[in-house]
Design brief:
Structural class: mainly alpha
Shape: rod-shaped
Mean pLDDT: 76
Number of strands: 4
Oligomer: single chain
Helix content: 55-70%
Strand content: 5-15%
Largest sheet: 2 strands, antiparallel
Strand order of the largest sheet: 1-2
Order of helices and strands: HEEHHEEHHHH
Length: about 300
């Protein structure tokens, strides 16, 4: 008995528990089936509502989605509805739009797109404007740099011209005239000296020697600057040619003077009166005295250089 009781206590109680679990699962399954059934009715009702809103002219094709219930029945748990018809019919369905609403929405979308496009265009214009400003500023900087470079070059030319003409003037002395300048307007509106000249007189002297000195001075004046111009070299060449002609003239005169001196040395008397004491001297000595007297006279007249 006790064993049986133990057996009863050990085995009969679990049997009673399994029955309770199965009963609970059956209740749960029934509730699930009821839920599925309710869902099915809801889907079918929504489908009928769509068909009613569409009207008879619209075509409706429905594909159902099923789930198996605990009772072995398939329940509709979803549906895919494909509708064909006019725009007006389709816009009457649940969640749809009327033609007027659709046009309004379309217009709103177009206006929004237009605004967005305008905003993009404005942004691009701003970017373009900023780029143009930067480019203009860059060009202004480059133009300013170029302007300053031109001014610097004009200032350099001015210094060189002033120095050049000052060298001419200093070397020319009394043979040079006043300095005259030519000017060029710079990008800053100021006038800069870019050219100049010093007139030089090709003055004949009272003697060939003076003329030669004048020509030599003109040569020095023409070539006084460190960078003589083509005109300077031309003037120097002209003075050199005149100096050469003057030297030839002086040489001819000197040759004539030498011939005259030779005749005197051969016995041409310069002094007609001779001291009586000298007349008593040896004739050969008289001849020497005559020559010495003649040489002295020539030296006094600057026709023969002193020894």
């Amino acid at each position: 008995m006790q064993v049986t009781s133990m057996l009863s206590a050990g085995y009969l109680e679990p049997v009673q528990n399994i029955a309770r679990v199965q009963a609970a699962e059956n209740v749960k399954a029934n509730k699930t089936d009821e839920s599925k059934q309710a869902k099915e009715q809801e889907i079918l009702a929504e489908e009928q509502s769509l068909k009613a809103k569409l009207g008879s002219s619209a075509q409706v094709h429905t594909v159902y989605h099923y789930s198996m219930g605990s009772d072995g029945r398939r329940y509709i748990v979803g549906a895919s509805v494909t509708m064909k018809g006019s725009e007006e019919d389709l816009n009457r369905v649940s969640g749809g739009l009327t033609t007027e609403d659709l046009q309004s929405k379309k217009q709103e979308a177009q206006e929004a797109l237009k605004k967005e496009s305008q905003k993009t265009e404005d942004t691009q214009n701003i970017i373009k404007s900023e780029a143009e400003k930067r480019e203009a500023a860059k060009k202004d900087d480059e133009s300013e740099d170029e302007k300053q470079a031109q001014i610097n070059e004009l200032e350099k030319i001015q210094r060189e011209v002033i120095s050049h003409e000052a060298a001419h003037k200093a070397a020319a002395g009394e043979l040079g005239g006043g300095v005259s300048y030519s000017y060029t307007e710079g990008p800053d509106g100021k006038s800069y000296i870019t050219g100049g000249e010093v007139p030089i007189k090709f003055k004949q002297g009272s003697t060939p020697e003076e003329t030669l000195r004048n020509m030599q001075q003109i040569q020095r004046a023409a070539t006084a600057p460190a960078d003589p111009s083509g005109q300077d070299i031309h003037v120097a060449a002209k003075a050199a040619a005149m100096a050469a002609r003057t030297r030839n003239e002086i040489n001819r005169e000197n040759n004539d003077d030498d011939s005259h001196k030779t005749e005197v040395a051969r016995g041409t008397p310069i002094f007609e009166a001779v001291n009586k004491q000298d007349e008593q001297l040896d004739p050969e000595k008289n001849g020497v005295l005559s020559v010495l007297a003649t040489v002295k006279e020539l030296q006094l007249q600057n026709l023969l250089p002193a020894a």
